[in-house]
Amino acid sequence: LGILFVFGIWISLNTGQVNISWKNIINTSGESSYLVFWNIRLPRIILAVFVGMNLALAGTMVQVLFRNPLVEPGLIGVSTG
Q1: Residue 37 CB: number of other CB atoms within 10 A?
Q2: Closest by alpha carbon to 5, among 36, 71, 60, 49?
Q3: Contacts of 69 (CB under 8 A, 6+ apart)
Q4: Which residues contact 80 (CB under 8 A, 6 or more apart)?
C-alpha cells in the first residue's frame, strides 16, 4: 500500500494540462510550471492526504466507540450530513 501511495502522489504531481519537468521546478522560480507545481498541484495533494487521514481516523473512532468493527455512519446519523 505504501508503494501505491507514493505512486499515486507521483502520478498526481505529473498529471495535468501543464507539462512539468523536475528540472524546471528546481532551477527556475518564475516560470508557469514552477508556479503550477507549488501553488496548485502540491497543495492539492497535501490536502487530499490530510482529508483521507481524517476520514480514516473518524471511521476508526466510530468503530472503537461502539466496539463494533462493522459499524456504519448511519448508526449515529452522520451519513446524512
Answers
A1: 19
A2: 49
A3: 63
A4: none
